[in-house]
Structure formats: structure tokens, C-alpha cells
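Q: Periplasmic chaperone for outer membrane proteins Skp, please. Structure only.
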Amino acid sequence: MNKLNVLLVAVVMVFATGFAKAQKIASVDVNAIFSAMPEAKALDQQLQNLQTAKTAELEKQGKSLQDLMKKYQEEAPKQTQAINEQRSQEVQKLQDNLQQVYAAAQKDIAEKREAGLAPLEKKINDAISKIAKAAGYEYVFDASTPALLYKAGIDATPAVRKELGL
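A: Structure for Periplasmic chaperone for outer membrane proteins Skp:
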């Protein structure tokens, strides 16, 4: 949302000046650059491995819970009301615990993703700034956002890729 606000402010500034002087505007496909970075590919693989491990752990706990529930259902007619209620509460606690483990796993994956993306975003932004200053661009728009409706200006994506060694 913040990128959209910055983009809209930049567009308003461009139109507000009335194009009194020639503007040097460029666009960069940040998504294409990001997907070409080896660090991004490594991060995706790490996140996929973490997701697989967490999923396997959750499936194992879920299977254990299902087996216990099946056992308790089969034994229920032979047990007293008090024992069945106790078992029902035990199953509910285990279900709640499983949901907490699932939420914790999702949170862990999201935090690792954010921590891994931050340096990559900084690296891309630094390269864009360097290229923009060197080429004298006044505005550089992200061509991968849906807010960019028309793109006929200079595409700085190749220069940024070159700067990053991609």
C-alpha cells in the first residue's frame, strides 16, 4: 500500500508541474529483477524446506490426534460418562494445541520470509538509486505494479540487472 501511495504522489507531482521541463522517467520491473537474483532463489528454497518440515510435523501430530480420537470413539460405549467427558476435554485441548502449533508455524515462516526479503529489497533499492542518479532519472516507477498504466519511457531494468551482476 505504501508503494501505491508513493507512486500516486509521484504521478500527481509529474502532472502538477505541467511538464514544464523534460522529465527523465524510467521504469523498472522489480519482480523480474527479484526473481533473477540467486539470493531470492535460495530464500525460496529455504522457505520451501521450512514449509515442508512444518507441514510434516503438523501432519504427524494431526494423524496422532485422529488415531486417539478413533480409539476414544471405539471405547466410548464401554466407558463411563465421566471418563468420556474427560477424554472429550483431552481431545479438545489437543486440537487447540494443534491449531496453536499451526499458527506458530505460519508465523515462523512469515517472519523468516520478511527477514530474508529485507536485505534483498535494500540491495535492489540501492542499485535503482545508483542507476537513477547516474543516468539522471527524476522518477523511476516499478513496472510490475498495477498502478502503472502506461509505460513508454526508458526501462532501467537491464541497467539494474547489470549493476547487480545478474
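A: Brief note, in case it's useful. The helical segments are 2-16, 30-36, 38-75, 81-135, 157-164.
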